[in-house]
Each structure stands twice: as C-alpha cells, then as structure tokens.
Amino acid sequence: MSFPLLGCGIGLRAPHYAEILGPARKLDWFEAISENYMDTGGRPLQILEKIRKNYPVGLHGVALSVGSTDPIHLPYLEKLKTLIDRIDPAIVSDHICWSGVAGEHLHDLLPLPFTEESIRLIVEKTDQIQNFLGRQILLENVSTYVTFKHSEMQEWDFVREIARRSGCGLLLDINNVYVNARNHGFDAQEYLRNIPGEFVGQIHLAGHTDKGKFLFDTHSSPVIDEVWELYRQALELWGSKTTLIEWDEDIPELERLIDECDKARKIYQSVRVERHCEESLRDDAGISVRKGGIASLAARNDIKVETSLKNIQLWMQSQIRDGSSQLLEAQQVTEEPSLNPQAGDPGVERLDVYREGYLARTEESLKEVYEAVRHVLGDGVFHDLAHQYAQSFSSPDFNLNLKGRSLPDFLKQTSWTEKLPFLPDLACLEWKIAEAFHGFDKPAFDPSFLFQLNSEDWKNLRILFQPSVSLLESSWPILDLWQSRKTPVEEIRMDLVNRPQKVLVARRPSKEVFCRLLTEREFRVLILLKQGKSLGEMFEFFDEEEADLPLTDWFSAWTREGLIASS
Predict the structure, then answer these.
(1) Which of 59, 71, 206, 451 could bond 34 through an S-S bridge, CB–CB 3.0 to 4.6 Å?
(2) What does each C-alpha distance from 433 to 203, 367, 408, 488 come to in angstroms?
(3) What does the DSSP 8-state code read for residue 465?
(4) pLDDT value, residue 273
C-alpha cells in the first residue's frame, strides 16, 4: 500500500477559520470532518475551498458506519463523493465502528465484538465503498468502554484483518490505543507491534480525560507523555507517517495547537526507523477499483449478516437512547449480549458512557441552532428540554446538525408552550435561519433578462427563488424575540400581545443570512410566487384597490438581496 506523506497537521475547526485564512502558518495540512461540509452550501464550504487552495486537506468522517448491520446509506455516499470531487482531498477516512441501526443514528462511534462475523460485514461494506468512491479509504481504531464476552480475538488482530482483507488503510489513533489498553487491560506496545506498518496511512494524537475507573476519549486536552512515547515507538516500528493533532472540546487558541503540532513534528523528524514489522501484505490485499455508480452498488447491497450482531446493535441502541424495550419488541429481539465487567462494575453499567454522550451531543446540536429558545427558557430548562427531546425523537439523519429538525413540533407538546405560547414559532424561525445558512445556492438571476420581455411574457413570468428563502407568519413578534437573544432576559421589555409578524429569511450572495419584516401585501405576493403562480395569476388574488402593487421596487430589492435564482 502507498499513502501520501503530508507531515504534521491539525483538525480544521470553526474558531480558527479567520486565522487560518490569514498569513501562512507552520502547519503542513488540515483534516476536516466530512459531515460538516457535505450538507452545506454556505460559508463553511466556502472556507474549506479557500483553505484547500493553500494546504493539503484530508476528509475524516464520523457517520459512514461500516460496522452497522443496516445497508450502506447510498445518499450519504453520494454526498461524500460530491464533496471528494469538489475538494480533492489527499486522504479520506472514517472509523471501524457502527453509529446506528434500523434507520436510526446515535451519532457516536460504537464498539463491535471482535468476531469473524463483524470482519466479514466490514470487509464487504468497505469493498463496496472503495469501489463506489473509486479510491482507497483509511479506517480508524476507536476508543471503547465496553467489550463483549463472545469476542474471538484481540482488537489488534481484528483491526489488522480488516485492512488485510479489504485493502483499506489504517488510521491508527495512538491515544485510542492507550485509552483502550488502560480500560481493558492489555499492553499498548503489543498492539503496535502487531500492526504492520505497511497498513498504516495516518496517525492521530489527542488528549483524554481520566474518569477514575476508566479513561474517556474527550479530545479536550493536550497529548500526555505516555501517548507521546507510544507515538515515538510507533514511528520507530513503522517509519514516517502522516500525523494529525485532534482537539475537539474546549478548543484552545490556534497557537496552542500549533505548539502541539510542533512537538509531534520534532518526534516525526528525529525518529530513525530501527525496525519494520515483519508481516507482509498478501498479494491480493490491494483494492481493485471497479467502475460503477449507484445502480451497481445497490445491486450488491444485500450483505448477509447473522442475527446475533444485529441483535447486539438493536439492544445497545435501545439502551443508549431511552432504555425502552419497544424497539426490541418490534424487532423481536429477546437475547441480550454478554458484556465483560469493567473495573469491577457490570459491563451494562458502562453503557452510561454512551448514553450520556448521546444526550450531551443532542443538547449541543440544539444549542447550536436554538439560541433564542435557550435564552428565553434558561440553561437549566433547556437542558431538560434537550434530554426529553433526545429520548423522544430518533434521528434518521447521519448529520448531527439536523437532529433538531423536529424541535418546533416537539415544543407544541410540552408544558413550556402553555406558559410561553410563542416558543414553537420562535423555534421555527431559528430552524429556518439554520437552513438558510447551509442552503445550496442556485445560479443567480440576471436582471437584464427582464428587458427582453413583452407584456404577455410578463404575465406568464414565474419566479424561482433560492433554496434559502423562507416565509414565516406568526401571531407573535418572533423576529423581535430572536433579535433580543443577546439581551439579558431581565432587561427585555417587549409587548407580546397583538403583535403578529411576517418574516422573510434568506441568504445574501455574500453568504450572510438575514431576516426582515414584510408587509401584508409583500408577504402575500411572495407566498403566491413561491407557490409557482405566474405574475398574471398572482394579480388575480388581489382586488382592484390592492392591485396597485410596488412590484418594481420589490423586484429590485429581491434581486439585490439575492432572493431570485436563474430559472
């Protein structure tokens, strides 16, 4: 196997965008989370494209879910391939794990039993993925907090066999090796010695949190000395490998990450290769890329899996989300997997790590979108709301950013709406703002086209609006409430009674999302035009007194604001 040697880089994170776009930094490359750029046509994708012009970029996914017994999610692969074609990454990677089953996503890197059944599933799906993408991918070892009694091999044998059979490369996370060694009682150095260097295409380094009875892979602190030493030993075994510093929580200033990267670079540059792992690749281990698209992939999307692995995943999913047995009863699952004890506790108790993580990720994704709702409710109530929502609404979307799609409807069912009846409408406004931020633009409308129209053409003209354009009508002053989201609640003075508002949400060509109030007539016109009515048909909905519409002025404003797309 042959992998690009990129040097030492860091994960691309939003707080550092502005600095990275500035003067060149002492960084060799960046790794972007694939899902953060697959579903957006807004500023994040624009920034990634700018950074790609100056640095190599890798795409690192968290939702490919190669270990799930569900079929491969074809729309996900299509979006990933579109992003790959657009960015031309040096590396594409994901994880040896599963993230959900039965069409639901838990947005986590969940553990697998180390069995032949799991290997067969992952190898077959990886083969399909690599052939669809037309390129080799890397798969990463994950940190885990439970293990299964029926595992048939050690983790390093499991990981190595997946790479050997599928032809994928390995992204070896040295911190995850250290975390799992401590959590499950094996020798981290033995793990490294049993991984052939030829399989390793990249290395991750990160920090973790000591929870007493176990280590938790938080990516929220510097790399510890023991992991640095393991990194040195890995390079002595395998030779130079592309290296990345991960830091995802409590993200520090960019200079702090650069310091961490410099530390990796010094080891990277100083280590002399003393010996290589002796195990060699089989002649047939490489990937043989076949041409074919969705149709050929779908035809092979009937991988046979035994019920035991699916039962394990259904059971774990029910325990992590809400602890209910409804999903299990619906799937006729009766057996519970046997988990090994962890630090003297029953293995099932350690599932709390995954359950708490699921709730925390849901809450964070809602905070990202529903800033005004959170401001009105307060942190404590919003925390309770987020947890109730997480347990009530499953997530069919691989993208965690879409988890909050149903919150406006959920709010209608809560007691908080009885006290604050404007909450669902306010939440709907915030969701539309988020959709506008990520929407994919169509080609812009060319106003010169209008000069070519005669009177009959004008009557038949239908206007196509950009996907970011939304119209909301509320009995409450929701735009005023949203604009007060930074003001301390005790300082807000606002009359809520008899103050209906009609709001336009859209995104300018500069990628800036904006909201503005609409008059009754402009709102009605926009509603009709968005419904596909021609200008002539639209005028039929107005009586003679109303028909004198300032359409020219409106049209100029809509064009200037970038609302209209080319048909």
Answers:
(1) 59
(2) 38, 14, 13, 22
(3) B
(4) 43
List residues bridging with 57 in a β-sheet.
30
The tokens describing 189, both together, are 């150095």
H/E stretch holding 490 reads none
Q: Output the CA–CA distances (angstroms, integers) from residue 132 to 128, 235, 377, in the order listed.
A: 6, 32, 46
pLDDT at 334: 53
Q: Which residue has the tokens 């003075």?
A: 493
200: part of which helix (H) or strand (E)?
A: strand 200-205
pLDDT on residue 287: 37
Say if CB 222 and CB 207 are below 8 A apart: yes
Apex CA 80: angle with CA 444 and CA 245, to 5°? 110
Which residue in 148, 152, 155 sits closest to 172, CA to CA?
Answer: 155
Cα–Cα distance measured from residue 235 to residue 213, given in angstroms and rounded to the nearest whole number: 30
Pairing state between β 513-517 and 501-507: antiparallel
**pLDDT on residue 145:** 97
Of the candidates 406, 379, 360, 460, the one whose C-alpha atom is nearest the C-alpha of residue 107 is 360
Cβ 530 vs Cβ 469: under 8 Å: yes
Instruction: Kindly give the parts of the chain with pLDDT less than 50.
Output: 273-301, 303-306
Instruction: Say what the pLDDT of residue 292 is.
Output: 39
Would you list the DSSP string of 371-429?
HHHHHHH-HHHHHHHHHHHHHH-----S-GGGGGGGHHHHHTTSTHHHH-TTHHHHHHH
Do 3 and 23 meet the contact criterion of CB atoms below 8 Å apart? no
- 382 contacts: CB under 8 Å, gap ≥ 6: 363, 366, 367, 370, 373, 374
| The predicted structure's pLDDT at residue 446 | 83
pLDDT of the residue at 255? 96
pLDDT (0 to 100) of residue 335: 58
Structure token pair of residue 95 = 């994880």
State how far the Cα of 482 lies from the Cα of 425, in Å rounded to an integer: 11
Beta-carbon contacts of residue 416 (< 8 Å; ≥ 6 apart): 377, 381, 385, 423
The predicted pLDDT at position 241 comes to 96
What stretch of H or E contains 130?
Answer: helix 116-133
Three-state DSSP state, 252: coil
Contact, 193 vs 172, CB < 8 A? no
Q: Which residues pair with 216 in a beta bridge?
A: 209
